[in-house]
Amino acid sequence: MSVLVVGSVAMDSVETPFGKADDVLGGSATFFSASASHLTDVQVVGVVGSDYPMDKLRELEKRNVDLGGIEQVDGSSFRWRGRYRHDLNSAETLETHLGVFSHFEPKIPARFAKPDFLFLANIDPRLQLAVLKQVERPKLVASDTMNFWIESRRPELVELLGHVDLITLNDSEARQLTEQSNLVQAARWIMAHGPKHVIIKKGEHGAFLFRDNNIFFAPAYPLESVFDPTGAGDSFAGGFIGYLARTGDLSEANMRRAVIYGSAMGSFAVEKFSIERLMTVTRPEIDERVHAFKQLVAFEEDLDA
Amino acid sequence: MSVLVVGSVAMDSVETPFGKADDVLGGSATFFSASASHLTDVQVVGVVGSDYPMDKLRELEKRNVDLGGIEQVDGSSFRWRGRYRHDLNSAETLETHLGVFSHFEPKIPARFAKPDFLFLANIDPRLQLAVLKQVERPKLVASDTMNFWIESRRPELVELLGHVDLITLNDSEARQLTEQSNLVQAARWIMAHGPKHVIIKKGEHGAFLFRDNNIFFAPAYPLESVFDPTGAGDSFAGGFIGYLARTGDLSEANMRRAVIYGSAMGSFAVEKFSIERLMTVTRPEIDERVHAFKQLVAFEEDLDA
């Protein structure tokens, strides 16, 4: 089944303790697509400026990513410049230049209007709501958000919750949105406002999937070297939704597996700058890492102890 | 098999967002014993002052905890006063009064001198080394430590590493001791200095067990309300070592199960002040929580996807 993603397509300049990269491919839709395309076909809607290196982005087309929803308009592209220090869990934003992204009004091409799965990446909740009006109800709608929208667009974000099946957000955002310090209570608050599923991402500390009264936890893979954490969350979402779309199965058991595929893709994303590692990773490597996750948490209960 | 623990026996005064408790039972050996005694016999070596509420501590004797190694001497007991704010992961120490603990010189009674398992709780590494000279080599020696000793007794702590089979420490302590920001590399550094096993505790984010090239991860149990985090680490150690002593099995599979028993006991400890919950929890409740941990991380690989 196909996945439609609507989000940012940006140029990132990143500095980590291990090196720096300038004007490399970035943005939520870019990471999502590079990740999900290992598992299913992806359609992308976004906007870039006249300065965007479309030839580099088009590498994604070799992997069944349809860039037909990317508008290139006059002006400069969305640029983000950030730095990670030794605590790789939090980025320090040095510069954000929205450029043409500040006037982004997602237009869903007719051939994208019946997606099986839809991922509303981190953009203004008003735009996320506008996208929903342009598509036939997909099998699953998932959305992401961030602290900026929680502060500036709370009513619209709460309205959006009533229209999505799943939301992904990180632990501090979950606490901020719900005003609950306990994550189980935060997830319950969110589910009471609409989504049947909540994924709370804790960066290097893993991710929770909440669904009804069930909780699933997946650790982050303990890599020996994390090179650049940028895009880990969107790569996670790409692996997660990509696996669901590949299998078309929304059972609890399959959702759990999908979280592990998401975690695996996130773990590859951070091994290099930008989408570099996502462009070279192979399906056997992905399956091997999924298996490594199984080994990481496996234990047998002892019923006689 | 029996477990000997050498550590602090203190009185804690704790304030959390949910209430406060004054002069309640605390200390590493106290939490460890209350936890481990659900699984095996425990022998305790420690020191208290003339003001210690021994009648309350003696409640532990009903559960096969032998307090014969606790010396009561003239002077005041070790007292700790601390506060947790909404971030329950870190305590703010308001007052530490070492009292008779500052002159603690562990003396192992003759009948404790052949322990099957030994836990050197968080005390001066010089004292931990002195304990090792007073006992026949146990089946497994585990030790804990803290930032204060890493700073003030580094050579003795590194010497100790050469004599223990396992060390438990939290993530910031592991980074501080090894000067490695990556936890996998930190664990490798520690194993190169002696211990065959390293447990890195991440509080509400779970715990890693490193052994040879294997890594096992156990999440912390996602409780809806954490009441008082004091003693979680020592309760974890008690469940972990207690389960190993109960089963006498040091295989990788059993060590993994032991980490889950440790995590389960840690999750009960934080449900109430002091050792209150550890005193009332039942074996069926413990087994039920172990099962809940299994549910929390369980997923099946899909070999056809």
**CATH class wording of chain A:** Alpha Beta
Instruction: Please list the strands of the largest sheet of chain A in the order they lie side by side.
Output: 5-4-1-8-9-10-11-12-13
CATH H-tier superfamily of chain A? Ribokinase
End-to-end gap of chain A = 47 Å
Residues in helix, % of chain A = 25-40%
State the oligomer.
homodimer
Q: Main interface pair? A: A-B, 44 and 44 residues
Largest sheet of chain A: 9 strands, mixed
pLDDT < 50 runs, ≥5 residues of chain A: none
Radius of gyration of chain A: 18 Å
Number of domains of chain A: 1
Structural class of chain A: alpha/beta
Shape of chain A: globular
Strand content of chain A: 15-25%
Secondary-structure element order of chain A, N to C:
EEEHEHEEEEHEHHEHHEEEHHHH
Give the second-level CATH assignment, the architecture of chain A: 3-Layer(aba) Sandwich
Number of helices of chain A: 11
Would you count the extended β strands of chain A for me? 13
What would the average pLDDT of chain A be, to the nearest integer?
A: 96
Short description:
With 305 residues, chain A is an alpha/beta fold. In chain A, 35% of the residues lie in helices and 25% in strands.
